[in-house]
Amino acid sequence: MIVLMLTLPQVAQALSLSLRFVNTLVLSGKLRSVKFGRSRRIRLTDLQAFVERQAELS
Predict the structure, then answer these.
(1) φ, ψ for residue 18, nearest 5 deg
(2) What residues does each domain of the chain span?
C-alpha cells in the first residue's frame, strides 16, 4: 500500500510535535493541507516541502 497523505495526528507523531501545534501550522498556511469533508490530510510532498523550508531557516 502506498501512502500519499497523512492525517494530522500522523503528521504530529512523525514530526514529534503536538497536534495543537500542527493544527496551528495548517490554519496559518505554513503547512498545506487538503480537506475532504470534515477531514484534513497532508500530502507527503507538502510535508517534505515544509520540513525543507524549516531546515533552510535554521
Answers:
(1) -80, 155
(2) 5-57
Looking at residue 30, the DSSP 8-state letter turns out to be S
Q: What is d(CA 34, CA 32) in angstroms, rounded to the nearest whole number?
A: 7
Distance CA 58, CA 42 (A): 23
Residues 41, 57: Cα–Cα separation, whole Å: 25
Q: Going along 1-58, which residue ranges are E strands?
A: 5-7, 34-36, 39-43
Model confidence pLDDT, tens digit, residues 15-55? 999 999 999 999 999 999 999 999 999 999 999 999 999 99
For residues 57 and 5, give the distance between their C-alpha atoms in angstroms, rounded to a whole number. Answer: 25
